[in-house]
């Protein structure tokens, strides 16, 4: 039996999983680390924390499993996207990594739009200039820490720094590089035009690979420390959402997944590049060679339900403790007792502004239609439906781009709710499934490493062999037209309030 290792470098911790070639979990270990916020809106982490967590989790899964090192055929790494790691000529980390959720770069984004142009940026990088993405962070260091900028010899993403630790190779791959705003996304290579405009040397950037390509092998020193063979292959890997797509089998046209975590993501595979000229959704290179994905984001998905729970559901929390069940289970049961449309109550889930489709940081949450007849359970159902309407908004943008979805997977905490899955199935009007494995990104990059090691001949073949469906929620033919009426009304509420949201932000 062959084995592979999947490493997932997240924001709260790094999880490493040892899989056999059929995707069965043999051993798993997570090590957490801090995030630092030196100022309001800043977010940083120490790359050494990621490296230590990776090394120690790999050692732990090898020790737990008793698997022989000769049977470990490859390593794949997934990671939080957009983080900036700068190395000097001696490969020392110059400053802490500015990570994905850092928001200090508004001035640099404005500079990018002025000096390159919004339309040109979308044409080349398939996305508008964004504060969280890597290019703006590089420019921030240039503008605010010139002494650090002068030392730069290499620029890497978080998972690519971990690759460097393992292999001493400076490399990246297309899915994660798509989120730097330096990649020519249609042509899957660095953009000379943008590098020149931003004053960034191409020699600072790693070689761009496809996600399942071999990028290097373990160095002798690292192999000895990890208890693995020198030269054990490390493949390109993928950014976290692209890796999760492979881990849930989203690797062909028509396939997509919805994640309901703190934010919500709808992610669809496409073999033809499609770019939204309005910049409402992200288009990036997929982890399947020669393919792309589109991704819509709703900022306040699971966050909306958590907000409601924390402020209004103390009784459910106490009852759940007494029953030994999760409070979300009881909240689901209460919402189930309410009909479609929450007795004519709608909710806009814009607690943190909104990304897709409105691109409006001033948007805020709204209960629309609240009356004296409504109870807590109506509001609870309205929150879940409002998040579902917002996720449907993402799918509508895909349809405008000629990307049609007929096969939807559900992931994240919200994906475990049967009620939420039924809402999504009825609003998307297609089956919504869950995967048997809950390992997501770690499994995705493990599958990429299996392809790199020759265990499977292609990414779709690996997915077909390994990814299995657990539950299938079919749409309810009677509820589909009911939801459609409420969804069409939901779509009219934000435009009617847009100007008022802006006024509110100025008060």
Structure, explained:
With 507 residues, the protein is an alpha/beta fold. Among the domains are: 3-242, 2-Layer Sandwich (Nucleotidyltransferase, domain 5), CATH 3.30.420.40; 302-395 and 489-506, 2-Layer Sandwich (Nucleotidyltransferase, domain 5), CATH 3.30.420.40. It has 19 helices and 24 strands. The strands form 7 sheets. Strands 1, 2, 3, 5, 13, 14 and 15 form a 7-stranded mixed beta sheet that branches. Strand 18 and strand 19 form a beta hairpin. Helix 13 (327-336) packs across helix 14 (376-400). The longest helix has 28 residues, at 479-506. The radius of gyration is 23 Å and the shape is globular. The model has no long low-confidence stretch (mean pLDDT 96).
Break the fold down into its secondary structure elements and pairings.
Elements lengths: L2 E7 L3 E8 L4 E8 L11 E2 L1 H19 L6 E8 L5 E3 L9 E2 L7 H10 L2 H8 L8 H11 L1 H4 L4 E3 L1 H10 L3 E3 H4 L5 E2 L4 E2 L1 H7 L8 E3 L4 E4 L2 H7 L6 E3 L2 E2 H8 L7 E6 L3 E7 L11 E4 L6 E7 L3 H11 L1 H10 L3 H10 L9 E3 L17 E3 L7 H25 L6 E5 H4 L2 H11 L3 E4 L5 H12 L6 H8 L2 E5 L5 H28 L1
Parallel strand pairs: 1-5, 5-14, 5-15, 9-12, 16-22, 22-23
Antiparallel strand pairs: 1-2, 2-3, 4-7, 6-8, 10-11, 13-14, 16-17, 17-19, 18-19, 20-21, 23-24
């Amino acid at each position: 039996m062959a084995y592979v290792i999947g490493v997932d470098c997240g924001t709260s911790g790094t999880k490493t999983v040892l899989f056999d070639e059929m995707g069965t979990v043999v051993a798993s270990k997570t090590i957490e680390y801090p995030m630092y916020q030196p100022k309001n809106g800043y977010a940083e982490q120490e790359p050494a924390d990621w490296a230590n967590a990776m090394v120690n989790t790999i050692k732990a899964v090898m020790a737990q499993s008793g698997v022989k090192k000769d049977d470990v055929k490859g390593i794949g790494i997934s990671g939080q996207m957009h983080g900036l790691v700068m190395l000097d000529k001696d490969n020392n980390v110059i400053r802490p990594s500015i990570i994905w959720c850092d928001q200090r770069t508004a001035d640099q984004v404005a500079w990018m739009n002025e000096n390159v142009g919004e339309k040109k940026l979308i044409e080349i990088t398939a996305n508008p200039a964004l504060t969280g993405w890597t290019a703006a962070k590089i420019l921030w260091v240039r503008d605010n820490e010139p002494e650090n900028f002068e030392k730069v010899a290499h620029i890497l993403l978080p998972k690519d720094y971990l690759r460097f630790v393992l292999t001493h190779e400076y490399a990246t791959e297309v899915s994660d590089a798509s989120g730097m705003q330096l990649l020519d996304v249609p042509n899957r290579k660095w953009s000379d035009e943008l590098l020149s405009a931003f004053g960034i040397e191409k020699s600072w950037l790693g070689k761009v690979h496809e996600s399942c390509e071999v990028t290097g092998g373990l160095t002798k020193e690292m192999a000895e420390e990890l208890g693995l063979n020198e030269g054990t292959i490390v493949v390109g890997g993928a950014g976290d959402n692209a890796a999760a797509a492979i881990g849930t089998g989203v690797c062909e046209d028509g396939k997509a997944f919805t994640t309901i975590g703190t934010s919500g993501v709808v992610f669809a595979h496409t073999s033809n590049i499609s770019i939204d000229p309005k910049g409402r959704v992200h288009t990036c290179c997929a982890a399947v060679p020669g393919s792309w994905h589109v991704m819509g984001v709703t900022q306040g998905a699971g966050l909306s339900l958590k907000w409601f729970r924390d402020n209004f559901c103390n009784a459910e929390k106490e009852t759940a403790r007494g029953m030994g069940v999760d409070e979300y289970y009881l909240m689901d049961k209460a919402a189930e007792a309410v009909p479609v449309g929450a007795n004519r109550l709608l909710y806009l889930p814009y607690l943190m502004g909104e990304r897709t489709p409105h691109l409006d940081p001033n948007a805020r949450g709204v209960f629309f239609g609240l009356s004296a007849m409504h109870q807590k359970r109506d509001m609870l159902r309205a929150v879940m439906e409002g998040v579902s309407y917002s996720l449907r908004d993402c799918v509508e943008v895909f349809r405008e781009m000629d990307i049609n979805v007929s096969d939807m997977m559900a992931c994240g905490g919200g994906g475990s709710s049967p009620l939420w899955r039924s809402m999504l199935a009825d609003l998307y009007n297609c089956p919504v499934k869950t995967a048997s494995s809950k390992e997501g990104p770690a499994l995705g990059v493990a599958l990429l490493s299996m392809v790199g090691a020759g265990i499977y001949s292609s990414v779709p073949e690996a997915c077909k062999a390994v990814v299995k469906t657990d539950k299938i929620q079919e749409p309810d033919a009677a509820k589909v037209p009911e939801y459609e009426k409420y969804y069409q009304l939901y779509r009219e509420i934000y435009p009617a309030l847009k100007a008022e949201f802006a006024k509110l932000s100025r008060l």
